[in-house]
Amino acid sequence: xxxxxxxxxxxxxxxxxxxxxxxxxxxxxxxxxxxxxxxxxxxxxxxxxxxxxxxxxxxxxxxxxxxxxxxxxxxxxxxxxxxxxxxxxxxxxxxxxxxxxxxxxxxxxxxxxxxxxxxxxxxxxxxxxxxxxxxxxxxxxxxxxxxxxxxxxxxxxxxxxxxxxxxxxxxxxxxxxxxxxxxxxxxxxxxxxxxxxxxxxxx
Amino acid sequence: xxxxxxxxxxxxxxxxxxxxxxxxxxxxxxxxxxxxxxxxxxxxxxxxxxxxxxxxxxxxxxxxxxxxxxxxxxxxxxxxxxxxxxxxxxxxxxxxxxxxxxxxxxxxxxxxxxxxxxxxxxxxxxxxxxxxxxxxxxxxxxxxxxxxxxxxxxxxxxxxxxxxxxxxxxxxxxxxxxxxxxxxxxxxxxxxxxxxxxxxxxx
Amino acid sequence: xxxxxxxxxxxxxxxxxxxxxxxxxxxxxxxxxxxxxxxxxxxxxxxxxxxxxxxxxxxxxxxxxxxxxxxxxxxxxxxxxxxxxxxxxxxxxxxxxxxxxxxxxxxxxxxxxxxxxxxxxxxxxxxxxxxxxxxxxxxxxxxxxxxxxxxxxxxxxxxxxxxxxxxxxxxxxxxxxxxxxxxxxxxxxxxxxxxxxxxxxxx
Amino acid sequence: xxxxxxxxxxxxxxxxxxxxxxxxxxxxxxxxxxxxxxxxxxxxxxxxxxxxxxxxxxxxxxxxxxxxxxxxxxxxxxxxxxxxxxxxxxxxxxxxxxxxxxxxxxxxxxxxxxxxxxxxxxxxxxxxxxxxxxxxxxxxxxxxxxxxxxxxxxxxxxxxxxxxxxxxxxxxxxxxxxxxxxxxxxxxxxxxxxxxxxxxxxx
DNA sequence: TATGAATGAGGTTTCATTCAT
DNA sequence: GATGAATGAAACCTCATTCAT
Lengths: 203, 203, 203, 203
Description:
Chain A is mainly α. The first copy, chain A, contains 10 helices and no strands. Chain A has a domain of 140 residues: Tetracycline Repressor, domain 2 (Orthogonal Bundle). Chains A, B, C, D: Pfam families: TetR_C_24, TetR_N.
């Protein structure tokens, strides 16, 4: 009947993490003060430390939760045994799916990963980064090999192009509106795979 | 006109700005302390204030120098009266050209513009952003109109796609190696315009 | 008289005090957090406040229980009407006896008394300190007067020497091993009274 | 002519260390706030960090300076090739000499060493402690061997007795008054070596 | 009796900035 | 031009304590 002002129990922690993630994404990790997070959560700065060890550990939980989900999805895709073009499409789609669940985390990842990865605690960011590279590179190579992708592609450059192209979307994808992750993914995939130009009449 | 005495001073100033830009790009604006900049320049933190009013004004100079050069280039492109596809290619090329000259500035722009633009002093960032949007949107629309670009494009989405796609490159473009800005630009243009997939045999 | 219900409560209280005393002794009063005490007692920090008013009141109870017992013993010794050397020996023995019962309290006393005594609530620490001084000084003076102690002793210096010599032992007296308080006391008394050197053959 | 309010240059650092040492000794390391030190030095808390990395590093410098001087003195004593009783007397004298120079450091050492030594940075405290033990133990053993010290001594207990007996003096030795370190040392040595009692008539 | 959650004061530290020299 | 020393605001974090449940 009554809407509780503050969700009790384990939910509170998740709520606070969501708040923190929003603020980190909006202002950047460094520019975010724990007071800002606390304000937004309706408590005092010190009170956050009942739930978390440190500001850093909040970022840690946010990022690792995202990466765990993401890699679960990627693993499923890898195990599906699809051809390169379909794998490509499915990886993009999965990325957008996770972006929908973890939007602020993706923004944080995009903006802060490089800096954070320098710390031992965030070692897994660098690891994940490397696994990314391998996964996409492998997919691109398979595609070139079987003729799905252009043979003249510079694979490392293309990899970065695709990677950034996908994640950068998180920054400005405020309202997904009515479009599902799959629809958005399709738009992206189409642009990346087939280009935005019409096919030249003669080539 | 200007007393020659000022020349060495001006040189030092440019040197310091370059140092500051490197550090800002590497560590992020917030995470950069004036002491770090000073250390790298071989002086004490306080001494920087002989040359600059504030940390903010360093970022200001760096960003506005970059944007001034960039818009000079874009203006030339606009005045060249090219078709949409050629304009597109030329804008990308010009962007990469400026990226080569102002790499750290581009990284800073990419990462901090949104936050900085909130301040009155950095108003011009928001202005520039808007002019960007208009310029690219106009180009894309012209291309759709004359059949150069696909008719089903979602112009706002495509604009963001192209914009991010280009600038994000600055983050990892450490050494250009032997490739010139034009070559890199061509690679990018080709990917964005024609896609990375081979064209289906029958369409 | 007392409702039996209170007995288990009282037992718990004593247990908690013992835990607190251990931690205070180990880490120091300031460095001890109520959370550490609570952890060691298997409860949450807040729960301690059901049993005690404050951290300070725990220290208070610990110290006053010790001093009460100690002065009971000293009083018995004083009333025994012994000679100075025997009184000396008996005071040291009694001190070690109480140290055996209240070891952590003695460590706390040793390390924190000076600071705590500044507060009104711990006034009794300063009082006890003064009674100490009087008791030992009187004993030493009696001994000098009747020839038991060397006539050239600097009484105030000797008093401090003896006092510290006895209490400081509490710090490292972890396990008493098989030795009783009396045995240890005897060793101490012997060292203090007769010195550690052999007596010169001719004097 | 004019007394400068604040000593400039390298002297300032030493001054601040002396101030910090006084406060640490008076209030204890934990109970001392950097604000208290700064107040006493006539500056703001943050200003201390221009001179020192942290509160901890102040304690570190204070303690290591003391121990360095102390061990220099002990080394000289060891190299003098004295007999056990003379070595004993000389070690005590050297200890009092350093106590006169580093009184607050000794108090800090006495009260905080155990706790601090747990940290890697203060490893040298534990090392020094161990060297202490060896040095005194060796001296006592030599004395027992050559008949200078009583044969029935429990060496480990005696070692602790002597050690504490000497250092604890630092706590209450406020004004040395007119007595030199040697004079005080002699009083101590006499008490410890020969005891405070007169020689029993018959034994 | 105890928990879970929060408060609020205060602690250490960082850092842009100032200024006399 | 640059240094050395300091300021002051604000950051992260700790902790004794409270209180509804």
